[in-house]
Design brief:
The protein has about 150 residues and is an alpha+beta fold. The relative contact order is 0.25.
């Protein structure tokens, strides 16, 4: 019983240390979060969209965004090329287009040819300055997935 308690305590300390280190690394470049949108296809579920939340202080006009503004990559890095972006728009939190707002929806390439469409996690990186957001800012999944 005593060995089990010591083992569990060591496991807890290791998990806490790794979590704290990951949060410290992310806090330098983390600019927001995103929600994944899953869609049922003939072959199964695919991640078709990422809805980025820029936060309360960011309001983006639809004329300020382009497809080359972001890079979507796999997490952890598998060495594969970035996921192809099919479209990008300023939207509400549900992914419906608006003229300006705090959400950006990225439509991803998906399907049987796009083997990355069911990756477990993505990192979205800003390639150019956008308002108060600086080049290199990253967005991480907040754990929520919408199924449409």
């Amino acid at each position: 019983m005593n060995k089990i308690m010591v083992f569990m305590l060591i496991q807890f300390i290791i998990c806490f240390a790794v979590s704290a280190q990951t949060d410290a690394v992310r806090s330098n470049t983390d600019s927001g979060t995103f929600t994944r949108v899953l869609k049922n296809q003939d072959y199964g579920l695919s991640i078709t969209r990422l809805i980025l939340d820029l936060g309360d202080v960011a309001v983006i006009n639809k004329n300020d965004i382009r497809e080359d503004l972001f890079t979507v990559s796999l997490s952890p890095d598998t060495g594969k090329s970035a996921v192809r972006i099919k479209g990008i728009a300023v939207t509400d939190k549900f992914g419906d287009a608006v003229d300006s707002g705090r959400y950006i929806t990225i439509d991803l390439d998906f399907g049987l040819d796009a083997d990355m469409s069911m990756a477990s996690s993505y990192i979205v990186t800003l390639n150019k300055d956008l308002g108060i957001l600086k080049k290199g800012s990253q967005f991480f999944q907040k754990g929520r997935t919408i199924r449409k």
